[in-house]
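RECORD TYPE: inverse folding
INPUT: structure tokens
STRUCTURE:
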């Protein structure tokens, strides 16, 4: 039996130890917001937050999440009460078919946190981390979207980060 918290609710589930977090969410818990694209850690469609950090849930075993805290797209807001990043994606038309959008939004939420605490990336050294377009593009590059909405996604992430008090440094 694995016990963990999902979107603020304690969940106990007994599944085959080979079951991924993604399959447990979708098939056993009916939380179908997280999408299965490649199932190989390459597309980001399955991204969720695990103890606040983004992970590809297709690469994580559910049984390994004992005692941890999972947030999925369903935990970031509801249809009637969207979260800030969800609202920004809507207002910037940052999705097309929408299949990969839940993963993009989870990734974007974690991106803001990474920038805020100054995590270094390949495009900025640890002394120069700010919410620039290039920083957002680099950090979101693991979420592959084939609908060409990248500019709108970057706009949505920067707007949300800026309204959170982070300084926009986009050119
Ligand atoms: S489905 Fe997990 S990264 Fe593609
Ligand atoms: S929104 Fe369709 S693949 Fe990304």
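DESIGNED SEQUENCE:
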């Amino acid at each position: 039996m694995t016990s963990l918290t999902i979107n603020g609710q304690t969940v106990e589930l007994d599944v085959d130890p080979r079951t991924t977090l993604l399959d447990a969410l979708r098939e056993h818990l009916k939380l179908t917001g997280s999408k299965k694209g490649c199932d190989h850690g390459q597309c980001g469609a399955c991204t969720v937050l695990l103890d606040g950090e983004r992970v590809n849930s297709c690469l994580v075993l559910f049984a390994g999440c004992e005692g941890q805290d999972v947030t999925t797209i369903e935990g970031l807001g509801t249809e009637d009460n969207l979260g800030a990043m969800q609202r920004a994606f809507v207002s910037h038309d940052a999705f097309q078919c929408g299949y990969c959008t839940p993963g993009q939004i989870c990734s974007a939420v974690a991106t803001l946190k990474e920038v805020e605490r100054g995590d270094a990336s390949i495009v900025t050294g640890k002394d120069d981390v700010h919410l620039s377009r290039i920083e957002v593009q680099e950090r979101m590059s693991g979420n592959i979207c084939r609908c060409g909405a990248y500019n709108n996604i970057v706009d949505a992430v920067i707007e949300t980060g800026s309204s959170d008090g982070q300084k926009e440094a986009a050119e």
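NOTES: The pocket of FE2/S2 (inorganic) cluster (ligand 1) is lined by residues 36-39, 41-46, 56, 58 (CB under 6 Å).
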